[in-house]
Amino acid sequence: MVAFGYHGDAFHGSQVQPLIRTVEGSLRLALERLGWWSENCLEISSRTDAGVSVRMNLARIDLPSSVSGSIEESNLLRAMNNNLPIGMVVWKVRKIPQVTRIRHSSSRHYLYRTEVISDWPQEVDEKLFNEACSMIEGHHDFTNLCRLEEGKNPVRTVDECIPWISSDGRVIGISVKSQAFLWNQVRRIASAISGVVSGRNTLDDIRSALENPEDPLDMGRSPSDGLMLWAIENEESDGMTDGSMPDTSWFSTPPRDSREHTRWLALARLEMATLLEREWLKRLN
To answer: Which residues of the chain have pLDDT under 70?
Structure first.
């Protein structure tokens, strides 16, 4: 099992697609270059949309017995990273039972920086923001807060939805945990919660969206570059991460002017990318 991460803007999504760079395709190419590839030897825990960054995803790789029986962790990490494209890194490896199904995770943890949403207010009503977050928690039908795929059950349990507070004390986004998410679910949740404090929608809108899933209600979908898959847990991942949140004391504050906010987004993207690089370097070193 390897823990790996990547910058969302460096790949066209996670699943293999012909003629374009994807996360799964890049992992496969690295294994082929190393002579470690075999059919169905790779399984990734979480799929992500194009533009979504990942601090920690998990993959199961069935290595040839001649490799798995003798290679040291540091050498495996070096070999993989020497064959991966810029913007992607493997930072932890662990031997696991061959029968382990890597997609069966106990928890997935996402962070969304709501400051990147265009109508994010300069002054945030923290009480209102907390109320909106708490409404998302629990067992709900999320038909109105996802892009529902055919055959998918829209009912999910959100174990935690709380404000993401920066190290200097301001609300910068949301922190959401669940065993499994639906397509676009976190981005639509972020848009709904952000909309409450910006006045674009209300708490009653969120309540209605959850209690009346048969009545369509669209509260928007936040941009992908504010989203980060922060961590994944399963029965074999204990100790890989400590559960801590990142240091964000150096994050800049979004400007008041809407035109300046558009330019500031480039800085926000750079800050999110820097956060990831700091996290990976800390674990590799």
So the answer is: none
DSSP 192: H
Cα gap 85→9, rounded to integer Å: 13
Query: In this predicted structure, what is the pLDDT of residue 13?
Result: 74
Residues marked active site are found at 49
- At 17 the pLDDT is 75
Both 96 and 113 in one domain: the answer is no
Q: How high is the pLDDT of residue 129?
A: 98
Query: Distance (Å, rounded) from C-alpha 26 to C-alpha 11?
Result: 9
Give the span between the Cα atoms of 103 and 170, in whole angstroms: 34
Domain count of the fold of the chain = 2
- Which pair of structure tokens corresponds to residue 231? 């961590």
Pick from 61, 157, 48, 71: which is nearest to 102 by CA?
A: 61
Q: What is the pLDDT of residue 199?
A: 96
Q: For residue 244, give Cα distances in angstroms to 109, 146, 175, 210.
A: 12, 28, 12, 30
* Domain encompassing residue 75: 2-103
CA angle 187, 192, 194 (to 5 degrees): 90
Q: Report CA 157 to chain centroid distance, whole Å.
A: 17
Q: Tokens 């069966």 label which residue?
A: 104
Which of 49, 76, 103 represents a domain boundary (last residue)? 103
Instruction: Report how far Cα 264 is from the mean position of its chain's Cα atoms.
Output: 22
